[in-house]
Amino acid sequence: MEGFTCNLKTYRLLKGLTQGELAELVGVRRETIMRLEKAQYNPSLKLAIDISRAVGAGIEEIFVFE
Length: 66
Prior knowledge:
Layout: E1 4-6, H1 8-14, H2 19-26, H3 30-37, H4 45-55, H5 59-62, E2 63-65
Antiparallel strand pairs: 1-2
Helix pairs in contact: 2-3
């Protein structure tokens, strides 16, 4: 997606989580996490907040919209 960068993989790995583990924590499928990490999917606000809390980083650090 143009104008969207996702740094989720970096923060997920820093927490030692697999895509599947993170998906389970935030209540989505692993494929959703995979698509987010490839910047192919814009998260809802609730999902962005849940992910932010799970990996311990600010939403604007993980999801960058230009």
